Amino acid sequence: MQVRLIALTAPQIDIEGQSLTAEGLMAYCARVSSPHQESTDYEKLLAYCIAHKHWSIFEMADMTVEIVTSRAISPQILRHKSFQFQEFSQRYAQAQAIEHYTPRRQDMKNRQNSLDDLPPETVAWFDEAQERVAMESMALYEEALEKGIAKECARALLPLATQTKLYMKGSIRSWIHYLEVRTDPSTQKEHREIADGIMAIFVKQFPVTASALGWS
């Protein structure tokens, strides 16, 4: 799993001689009807908007991140319809790697949960099984390509753990919702780790908003 910041909204105006940040732009737009639109003090304003659910101002800035994960996790991410996505295409490009997963025990009381308490011999069995699947499926996939079989057909031989890369772009409002949902313990661990990584980026780039949300 890897996440990294790719792009942020870049305002083209200065306030009091300083370049406006993406976070500052949200406050600037929120004050469209105020005589103090160019004020650089906006901590209370953003906190007020969050507290009273005035979410529209958080649609004034966007953030794009790059995510490296597996085909097992990417469908969960793509389910967030308020975002725009571009994903690595196994139809046009050759798959290069298969992700490794640490097994967990199924929680029999909650099908959304898994528990990290499997006996060592079960973990070892699963690790070996993954290695076999990865090696055999990749070997067959590469053989299929060598035989001239189209990538769009050969990909049927690949497991869900096959690595993929996607770009995820959305407004700060969308990111707030995504992070609230996907950092929750009910989210699959591998997806939650992605959300945690994105939250670290969010906190750095939008410190005032993050503080008002109780994230820092």
UniProtKB/TrEMBL annotation:
The keyword Methyltransferase applies. Pfam families: Thy1. NCBIfam families: thyX. Its EC number is 2.1.1.148. One of its GO terms (molecular function) is NADPH binding. The keyword Calcium does not apply. Keywords: Methyltransferase, Transferase. GO terms for biological process: dTMP biosynthetic process; methylation. This is FAD-dependent thymidylate synthase. It comes from the Bacteria.
